Amino acid sequence: MPTALITGITGQDGLYLAELLLEKGYDVHGVIRGQNNPKRELVRRTVPDVVLHNGDLTDLSSLMRAMRDSEPDEVYNLGAVSFVAYSWENAHVTSDVTGKGVLNMLEAVRLQAGEDPGSIRFYQASSSEMFGKVQEVPQREKTLLWPRSPYAVAKVYGHYLTINYRESYGMHASSGILFNHESPRRGPEFVTRKVSRGVARIKLGLADELVMGNLDAQRDWGFAGDYVEAMWLMLQQPVADDYVVATGEMHSVRDLLDIAFAAVGIDDWAPFVRSHEAYLRPAEVDQLVGDATKAREVLGWKPRVGFHELIESMVEHDLAEQSRIARS
Ligand code: F7E
Questions:
Q1: Which amino acid residue places its CA nearest to atom 28 of ligand 1?
Q2: Which CATH number is 188-219+249-288+305-327's, of 3.90.25.10, 3.30.360.10, 1.10.287.70, 3.40.190.150?
Q3: Which architecture characterizes domain 3-181+221-245 according to CATH?
Q4: pTM, rounded to two decimals
Q5: Which of 37, 244, 246, 291 sits at 20 to 30 Å (Cα–Cα) from 178?
Q6: Rounded to whole angstroms, how far apart are CA atoms 57 and 97?
Q7: What is the pLDDT of residues 224-234, one digit of tens each?
Q8: Tens digits of per-residue pLDDT, 168-196?
């Protein structure tokens, strides 16, 4: 039975990936941070078979301990401070966790692997945010990176360091450049979940407006459950490499609002939505759309869930969750 170690186990990707690996018969371990982490219970409830290790991406010795105790064949580094807007206010902590955390993970893997650097396969969660002010449309693995936030700069550091460790030490280290991926497990600070939750609350009479930022931003949004499969496929390849994972379709925040409000029978959302500058970013990424040809051709990966279906399922989930909360 292969063993996998996942950082970021409490996030949507960590949970979907743990479920996928457990289904495949893996022994799954996760790194969890902090004393009395409130998300520990969520992990225990969702994936009870996962073995948890205390550790922090900023603390190399804790990662080495997790590595020694779990003896993984595959390591998935999904842990990060991942909210782009937050990264301007907390640039140091974002750099330490999202950037230097990758260095700590690569070092922990390298030291654990010892004489045979390729014996532990490593996945780095890189991000489409690295393309920032896009230099080519759609974006591919070779597109020039132009990060626009402290978060994106930290991701670029982690991305190049992963490539550097592969080239320097012969490690089996792959990087997945994942475009936005969402689900009912997404945190409510991200735009898709903010909208699905807000629309559900408006429909149920629990709120009367949704305060938003830039409605013209465009993204390539896919389903997180599909994207974790691409992560796993990357680590099954004989040779490590970098892959764009995307749907190839671009939608605006306005399209997102159209679909989410229509799902609860509201055709004109204008009376319910207000824009506020508090939600604008110092430097915006206006549009992102990925070309996942390499993932399709080499990994045989393609997305299953489309944008409409994804947003409708999130609204449906939030209607049920919000009515439960309102009743209790
Ligand atoms: O924003 C605009 C906002 O926060 C999407 C992370 O997983 O994907 C995510 O980063 C767009 C932006 O995600 C609101 O300005 C408008 O243009 O959902 P988001 P993100 O910044 O694209 C990448 C791939 C990652 O790697 C990141 O970790 O929507 N927008 N109005 C808004 N965004 C938010 N959050 N809230 C608004 O009210």
A1: 82
A2: 3.90.25.10
A3: 3-Layer(aba) Sandwich (3.40)
A4: 0.98
A5: 37
A6: 6
A7: 999 999 999 99
A8: 999 999 999 999 999 999 999 999 999 99
